[in-house]
Known about the structure:
Blueprint: H1 28-43, H2 47-60, H3 64-70, H4 72-93, H5 103-116, H6 119-127, H7 129-150, H8 157-180, H9 200-212, H10 216-238
Helix pairs in contact: 1-2, 2-4, 3-4, 4-7, 4-9, 5-7, 5-8, 6-7, 8-9, 8-10
Amino acid sequence: MAGDTWIGIYCGPAPVPAELWLRWNLDPVLLSALGLAAVLAVRTRTPHGLAAIGVLALAFVSPLCALSSALFSARVVHHVLLVAVAAPLLACAWPARRVQSAAPSFLISTALLWAWHAPQAYDLALGHVGVYWVMQLSLLASALWFWRDVFAAQRSPVEAISLIVAGFAQMGMLGAILTFAPDALYAAHRVAPLEWGLTPLADQQLGGVLMWVPAGLPYAVAGIYVARRGWATLRAGVT
């Protein structure tokens, strides 16, 4: 019977609109892990790390966690927060010490993002707590690897910005595929969107659009950060 505790949706069953703001995730293990990480960030004086922990709390503790059980579009927001907001913030807090080829981190992070959005893998993760955490941790870890390569101190701004563009391009391509898919792909979201006034296909299309267009904002911010850092380095070298 112990194995049965792993069967189910980590954030609980899909909420209806009236109960959403009551659905905070107070998992003691998760809260302890986030608390320890926050203490580490404070002690090491890494504001980017503390901001990343805040983003992770938004993704896993706030009602967004429960909403992502109901709506694929909310799950997209959840994943974008992981791979395009929390991961680069963590990479800024703990950057790579030396430049190396970014091809492995780009290819692996891309492959994992696409693989976890395959219908069979996605539905399995939403129905099994252990697989769910494999999904979340692998997406976050591979994205962190990629962003640490992007922000490596000696990498040229042109190369870093090219990597950022490539990162967003692959996400945008996945979003476009989901937007224009003729049928709803995910069994996990076949019923719950109806409670929110969306058909499953419309929910999927909304998620695809979010991944395709608004998700570009954090990538644009990262590009500006890299450009400003490169400009500051250039000015310091001239003076």
